[in-house]
Amino acid sequence: MTRHLTRLGRDEQGATAIEYGLIAALIVIAMVAGLAALGGQTTNMFNDLSEKIDNAIV
């Protein structure tokens, strides 16, 4: 039993997986924040473009 616990204490695969998970989560949070910041500007750009196309057609 002690051998099993010692081996389990040395195993670092779980820690590595958690680290990669945290890095992926931080990347996703940064992407969401960036999209939220640019979302309004992008919407305004497409609305302006749509108005210009409507005015050009009419």
From TrEMBL:
Keyword entries, A-Z: Membrane, Transmembrane, Transmembrane helix
Has UniProt tagged this entry with the keyword Transmembrane helix? yes
Source organism, top-level taxon:
Bacteria
Looking at the Swiss-Prot or TrEMBL record, what is one Pfam family this protein matches?
A: Flp_Fap
> Where do transmembrane segments lie in this chain?
20-40
Q: Which InterPro entries match?
A: Flp_Fap
Name the chain's protein.
Pilus assembly protein
Taxonomic source organism: Tardibacter chloracetimidivorans
Upper lineage is: Bacteria, Pseudomonadati, Pseudomonadota, Alphaproteobacteria, Sphingomonadales
